[in-house]
Request: fold
Amino acid sequence: MGTISKIHEMLVSKQCSCTELTKSYLDEIEKSNGELNAYVNITGEEALKTAEQVDKKISGGEEIGMLEGVPMTLKDNISTKGIETTCCSKILTGYKPIYNATVWDELANQNAVMLGKTNMDEFAMGSSCETSYFGGATNPFNTKHVSGGSSGGVASAVGANIAAYGLGSDTGGSIRQPASFCGIVGLKPTYGAVSRYGLIAYASSLDQIGPITKSVEDASIVFDAISKFDDRDSTSQGNLGGETYSKLNNDIKGMKIGIAHEYLDGVRDDVKESILKAAEVYKSLGAEIVYFDLPELKFALPVYYIIACAEASSNLGRYDGIRFGYKTEHYNGTHDMVCRTRSEGFGDEVKKRILLGTYVLSAGYYDAYYKKAQNLRGTIVKAFDNAFEKCDVILAPTVPMTAFEMGHAVSDPIETYLTDICTVPVNIAGLPGVSVPCGFNANGMPIGMQLIGKRFDESTILNAAYKYQQAAPENFKDTKWGVKL
Amino acid sequence: MSYELVAGFETHIELATKTKIFCGCTTQFGGEPNTHCCPVCIGLPGTLPKLNREVVNFAIRAGLAVHGEIAEVAKMDRKNYCYPDLSKAYQISQLYAPLIIGGYVELSNGRKIRLHHIHIEEDAGKLIHQHGDTYVDYNRGGVPLIEIVSEPDIRSIDEAKEYVEKLQQVMRYIGISDCKMQEGSMRCDVNISVRPQGSEKLGTRTEIKNMNSITNIAKAMEYEFERQTDLIESGGQVVQETLRYDDATGTTSSMRSKEDAHDYRYFRDPDLVTINISRDEVEKIKATLPELPADKCKRYIEELQIPEKDAQLLTKYRKISEYFDEACEGVKSPKTVSNFIIGQMFSRTETEADKEEFAVATTPAQLNELVKLIDDGKIRNNLAKSTLEKMLDSGKGTLDFISESDMGGLDENALNDLCKQAVESNPKAVEDYKSGKEKAIKALVGNVMKNSRGKADATAAEAKIKEIIN
Reply:
């Protein structure tokens, strides 16, 4: 499996050069991207330049860092200086940022080899990657199925071994859900652990950047690298819980793993079965399973859609064709230009959420929707605080189902919204959550489980996830695609 | 029926912090378009605001200067509206938890104009219309502002003018803004309504936007007062609307009606954390505040026996009052210092701008030295006055004009000689005096003063001359 530590070993032991490695990833992208549609922008030239630098260091006998020379990708809503960053929206076509997102500065400084920018739902709004202006990324386990969303491109690329790891963003499940659909690991860190500077905002109070990786160790390595306090992001606090990698193998005997009944309501049988089986694995590792009620979860979805859309309606006001991105060709005056640019530049899902958000913030409706949602958000935060008095980690499904077929999300939007039901509570409460593969359904599609922790307690959930990975390695599978290492 | 004017003000003041409110760009006025900008203040996707704490400190100074209550917890909100000069399509402002609550501005008639609150926010850029095209300059975007919102406590145009002047004066004193209305660093929106004299109920108001001079504020209010009164008198009703004032015609016209009013969809800005203000911080800022103009004026009147009118002139600008304070150091008669400033110096600083700058050639220490010579009886007032004139015109010090021999009064004999000389050489004046023209004596005294180069005591000289004539 093409994990970070494996690639690092190969580079250090000179089994292959970074340039060779990078070329093989680029070749595989070339071969598979037509069907996977994971990448929307391939940056081979820049990748090979960095690879060359890494090779120079290695041949010069210099020591290299864990992430140095490792081929990776960024979701297309993370700003990269001089490299087109579109959020997979027509309205940002041609937009090349003049600055780097803090996370990319951090990784670029460590000579990460970026292969390209990956596909996503337009402005991260969607659960299947299909709202992308460039069409959806497909699932490496079965390309008739969706990769999930919104970070579908990253998940598809990592799942298909055409990137060793990637950074996605998670507003209501956009890292965990596609990771679950593509049979890999996705960590949504605590709100404030990773700088949002340079992440093109969808919903500012919920957005968080995190890693999508082949293994739990990799998620831990990348999380440790990007979770730093950033003066440019007022909501940034850095990794208050301390580094996680050295604590992965801690004993979990006596760890209390909680299961809230509500998380299993309405979940498909095969998914439920896998979660309960995972609970058995934990029991066998000496953990204690505790069951409890978390009735406040029923508020999570409406609260999420009100808050996320409200913030989005404001965040997306700046796309007016004046300073950057798409601008309509024919117009009559400034007002007409802005109207046409936005009408032509945004897709339907984005328009829907802008309208909804504008509505809930409007005079006369603010109290009934936005204010009420904020109050309920407080209620949900408290409910989780209480739950964590009963347990150390909450175990839940990541998605109530496995990856659905392409086209399904469009035909049944409400059901698609419901797929977020298990992931959104974590964002509302600002908690860390990691999705880990925990089985396959009858059709061989991966099932994911979610481990939810206390704020800034990434260490505990990654430790628990790692122990599970050790105990159930059969759930971590490569696909037919990509680089074979 | 007679009508009463009721007005309230929303006053925007640009703060003179070195950098913008949410990024490190300079706040300097002007500059080539879009050169005082960065990814944050032009609102590039993915950028985040970072609150400049200096802005909070400046606003706290403003709050303390107008007796407001400084909040312990304040928050930033987004005010959403779409306009090309607003790069993010929302202005970061405060609605739900402003920095300063309450406060007042006291007018000379003793009335207190209550303030509702003061909040901080960012300014927008500017549109430039050129060659049939519209361009945007974001240099001003993100410059910090405070908005001072008053209660509808103003009852006349004179009160309105004084309210604005007082705000301008106090904000300049505490050094948070130059408050230049013509450059836009101070702008007012005026809410105005009328009601029958004696009525308690507020009438329907209109809002006149973006007034940029006190003269225009007065003219616009006058026009609007007449318009509303006429409307009501003729059985009509005032419509709540936003107006603009046209300087050229001296009239107001509608910008938008209440129905078209913006729905700003305010909500808490999720990118900015709560602002906590400790009482320690407030105390520290309080300690750095200068003596405020109202307090200074009172002190000049009560402790230094300066006439009220003069005290107001001395305290109008901070630099003048500081000059006065320094020049008064240890002198017996502050009134003399005041007279020299208002007399000799004001005639050399004619415009208001000059007075505000108050760049006179003579230092306060030099004036202090000069006045102390009078105090010590070494020179007479007249000599001091003429010397000061020379000092002001040349920039030289006291001793360049007054020699040691000039100091010290005249002895009895010398005075006697000079008076005799005056009487002998001015027979006409002596004749006039004898024939009952009391005033003629002044010419003789003047002659003595001139010949003694101002050293003679005028009272003593007059007595001596009378003695000689009689």
Remarks:
- The longest helix of chain B spans residues 214-233.
- Chain B touches chain A at residues 39, 42-51, 78, 80, 82, 84, 87-90, 134, 136, 263, 265-267, 270-273 (CB under 8 Å).
